[in-house]
Write a structure and sequence with these properties.
Structural class of chain A: mainly beta
Strand order of the largest sheet of chain B: 1-2
Distance between the termini of chain A: 84 Å
Helix content of chain B: 40-55%
Largest sheet of chain B: 2 strands, antiparallel
Number of strands of chain A: 74
Oligomer: heterodimer
Radius of gyration of chain A: 32 Å
Largest interface: A-B, 48 and 37 residues
Strand order of the largest sheet of chain A: 35-34-37-38-40
Shape of chain B: elongated
Structural class of chain B: mainly alpha
Order of helices and strands of chain B: HHHHHHHHHHEEH
CATH architecture of one domain in chain B: Orthogonal Bundle
Chain lengths: 1100, 307
Amino acid sequence: MPIKTSLFTLFILALSVSCNSSTETLFKKLSEEHTQISFQNTITETDSFNILTNEYIFNGGGVAVSDFNNDGLPDLFFTGNMVSNQLYLNQGNLKFKEHTQQANLDTKGLWSTGVAVADVNADGWMDLYICAAMHENNRVNKLYINQGLDTSGNLSFKEQAEAYGINDSGNSMAASFIDYDKDGDLDLYVVNNEQNQSIPIIYRKKVMDGSAPSNDRLFRNNGDNTFSDITIAAGITIEGYGLSVTPLDANNDQWVDLFVTNDYIANDLLYINQKDGTFKNEIENILLHQSKFSMGSDAADFNNDGYSDIISIDMLGETHQRQKTTIAKSLFFQNEMNTKYGYQDQHMRNMLFKNNGNDLPFNEIGQYAGIYQTDWSWSPLFVDVDYDGNKDLLITNGFPRDITDMDFSNYRFNDGPYTSVSTLLDSVPIIKIPNYAYRNKGNLTFENMEDKWGLSIPSFSNGAVFSDLDLDGDLDYVVNNINDPAFIFENKLTEQSPEIKYLQCSLEGTKENPDALGAQVVLRFSDGTFQYHQQQLSRGYMSSVDPTVYFGIPKSKSISTLEVLWPNGTFSSLENPSPNQRYTFSQQNSTLKSELSFPFKEKEKEYLFSEVSSSYGIDYVHEEKNVQDFFNQRLLPHKLSQNGPCLAVGDIDGDGNEDFIVGGSSGFSPVIFFQNQSTKFTKKPLFNKKESMRYEVESMTLFDVDNDGDLDLYLVSGGNQFDLNSEFYQDRLLLNNGKGSFTLDKTKLPALTSNGCVVRPMDFDNDGYTDLFIGGHNKPKSYPLGDASFLLKNNQGSFEDVTKASFAALSEFGIVTDAQWTDMDNDGFQDIIVVGEYSPIAIFLNKEGKFIPAPSSVLDEAFGLWKAIEPIDYDQDGDMDLLVGNLGENNMYNISLDTPMIISTRDVDSNGSVDPLIFTSQKNSDGTWDMYPTQFWDNLNQQSPYFRQEFNSYKAFSNANLNYYREKGLLKDDQTYKANYDASQWVENLGNGSYKMNSLPPALQLGPINDFLTIGEADSKNVLVIGNDFGGPPFEGNFDAFQGTTLQWKENKWETTSAQNSGFHVFKDAKEFGLVHLKDGKQLILVSQNQDRLLVFIKK
Amino acid sequence: MYLKRFLFITLSILLVSCNDGVEDTAYLQRLEDPELFQASIQNLTDIVVYDIFSPPVASRVYLYPTIAAYEVARKAAPLNYNSLVGQVKGLSPLPKAKTEEVNYLLASIYAFNHVGKALIFSQKKMEVFQADFAAKIKEIKVPPSIDKASKAYGIIAANSILEWASKDLYSQTRTYPKYFMKQEDRFWKPTPPDYMDGIEPHWEKIRTMVLDSSNQFQPKAPLKFDLTKGSPFQKQLWDVYQVINNLDEEQIEVAKFWDCNPYVSNHKGHAMFAIKKITPGGHWIGITAVATRQAKKFLYGNNKCLY
């Protein structure tokens, strides 16, 4: 008996001991004792040399990984600022031997920054190019030519930058070897960042002629161990406080392009290779906005669709405390100044740009992906650390002196110009924050894994690389730290999960380009999917990554081929390679392949849609005078005056052909397009008098008011730029003379001076005359309160406001954004569905002319930032379902059923103005979540001094949660609106007044949806979707990631077709659809865009 | 009249409470010390600087507390000092003190600080000062009943002034639209490095004290904006540009002396820190303080001290 018990005990103990392995993290931090790597980028501040005298003192150093001594093991090289660079030779088993002095690589006194690796003299030994900065008399870049091993086996280098002609003396931050002219040898791009007298945040004309001290440099390899500076001739002429360069083929044309990140106000650059020896910056059309203080960057195909995506890194803190103590306010002068000086929009957060192929811009989805706020960040690296087939994202961060702390700036010290530097510095807080690691979930989103992966150690980290240092298959991670030893993280994946499958690929290029920079590799799976890699080494920040190519293989997939497209266009491939091996490809064994397939070559696209405006003579560009909404109401979450243009379609001149009208903004006339007998269009303004053009037309409808057989025109006036009840908000009715000439009739409408938004005609009382529903938008200068909505009864051509009598519930509605008539209960009377900002999805049933809310526990609680509603019987079961457009999930508001966005409608200081504080769920520094204001303290103070008085520091403000405001009476729950949905929805009508909410697929969540258009019948029913909102506030920026999508209900689910596959190329601020039937039976799909062209599509 | 009465009552009380043999009317003299008031106004200036008020708003922060103090202090010698009621817009007479224990000089300082506290942001700083002041009052041996009555009256008076102040439209203008930037070159644009909003674009709507409105003193129109070489505007612009780029030491010192920007931000890379100074209004307050000290007079209007 006792023996059995003790055996049992032992058994339990054994279990508990072996169970510990499940709590082991993916990465294990190796000790200095083990690795013998003692490198530490130590920075010492003095009174005369510190963050206030030299702002780049903490920009850190980089890491390079390459096999410098040709022994088959990857070695590590660290660049140091005040300390010397150091080389560590890999001895195997994660042990390293320092080999700096002996190698002549000692650089003490040289402020080294970025490092690039190449075999510059093509002798079979990898050389090092070191960028230098900081000291004007000692910052010449260095080229260390690898001398190989001498007779005693000692590896050494010889500095020869001057002889090669690449001894650049600018303030260099990073460099990259690229073969930009495809002549076989590697050229050199150097990123410069000159600090001159002017303050880098001041707007001024851009210096674009190559003369700026901060202009980067391009050196062409002459092929004879010399380089020539061809910067200007190559078109590299735009200034910028450069911090990184990432080479990539952005447009799949096999020529290397360059993404350059610039700090401060200077825009980032996307130099597209013109294939003729020059580059051209095309960033404005390819990336619709940029990160502001762009630091590191990377390029990789993170979503496995065959196009290389881009990430740029910024300094936005993740917690509410960090954000609100480091950012005083959203900068409302930004948009005006950007326009004035020709700068593209920049916003302070990490940006993830998804490549959508050549006919479309990239779209920025960092917020949707969940990777946009990693504090003061430096190196982003896409690397599949868990080998599940999706590239994960590792981001380093840290800054030893938090000089962005606003309390430090404004309130900490008050002694003015006489305070000593050391006192000043002592009052700057030190924030040591762990790096970030994100696991790619394969669905365009990422999840935080730094804790689970064992990478979450507080540090000041800068450059980093990944490499299989111990040749055990998985990828280890090396990080350069300031004032701490470098991190060497051993990846334990293959040990912890032996079932993991991966594949490694070594590329043996030419003598001049042994690492085959510019090559492309594709790993194809038997199910048709693939992984795509572009071979470049300058990735992340100041660093050079491992030249070996690594692929993780998903459990469910089997490999079909591994293919290499070499820089010279030749091809190598391997059929059915077995996993968990390293394969070597040699360029000398490659062959010419006649037929390349995607992604080596852009695919042949069979577009279903083509844009045909010019073929039909439809030439229209919407214009609008800028209204400074944020100067009217400081705390708005978006502009309220940029909703147009609207469209209306109908046979205006009675010639049997459909015409259409485009609405005009204030100061411009709406324009009529008449369809003639040869299906071409001619345009004519609706108004000639200036006075008639003062109104802003928000919505229009063509309908027969007086049943005289022609289409009259109703114009809803709105736009938020006029004061409450202004005469310019009066809607207008224009009567048609039967031949397309309109006359204003002031007698048929009641007073309607509400800031209107939408008009929907319908004979709601079945009396033969068409009535009107008018939705009101925001109460001018009082967002988020709504202005009045109306139900107008058509009494034989004259309208009567019957809202109170027949639609009382409407008076409480709030801001309306859209409404549609449809018979929901099949009783022969048209019901109406109304949606708005902070509204539920409101169905009002028409009971013989009286409207009552249709109670639905689901829809009544579905509060959203709704923008569009489309009733549709998608499943053809006889009842109407709904598509509802919302803000989308690509935002920073963390909206959910449990954590709604809450907006206050209270006048906090009783001065007659609404103070719309907005609260959303945000992270605390301790990792918990709570509700906090979205707005910044200074902006709240600009709204009312009440908030300035309530708190005495940014810190205090950052700690006040929603409960605080509630307790102080600043927020009253019965004076709030909310939104608990941000995702656009498809709502299933289950019958009997029951509904089910469902989120639309991810492609439809990348931006706001403004309109739907259903075309086709029954099984060939397609829904086209457009959206975006280019009226975002300065901090958050525009919502510009939505690209035209088509939806089809197939096999019990929604199938989406992206713009890049359908040809429905809509990616600007697209507002409204119109559908025009042509005389020849074809249909024109009109898409209106704010301050841009009217697009016209035809479907094949 | 009140003065004699006041003295009589005071003496009587003193005679009655003579038990200890310590007769202390010395506190009355000590209350006359203008430094008591000087300290309060200096404190207000310090807080104005700390809280970063723009010059127009700072002027309001100086205005109402000083009016409150004057209206109360003058009650100690009402025949020698006229009330501002009837001279400034909308001001009603202060409520009368309910007790004769009120020392108006002391009460005026209580009123000053109470109004000041309502107009600044860092109320804790004012509270610290008020605590110090209370200690000082004890130190100079003001009888507790006098102190209590003076404080109570000071607050009543202050609230009356604050009520009057609240009607000047300041509160409403906080949320009026900010200055809209106009595109054309001839219009002012926000300036680097901070590109601050145009300051107080609705200030002309604030109730004036004495002026009918800002229209009462029309400045000469500025030179017509014209960049063509030789135009008056261009010539003036060029002059300014030349001078700025060729400043000598003395010119810089003079400019620094007159510089009235209360908030100068220093940018270095991503770092920004503010150097704060007094506003122009604060400058003149300071000059008055210096002048009255030199003349050894009470703060207001260079008149003889009340006693």
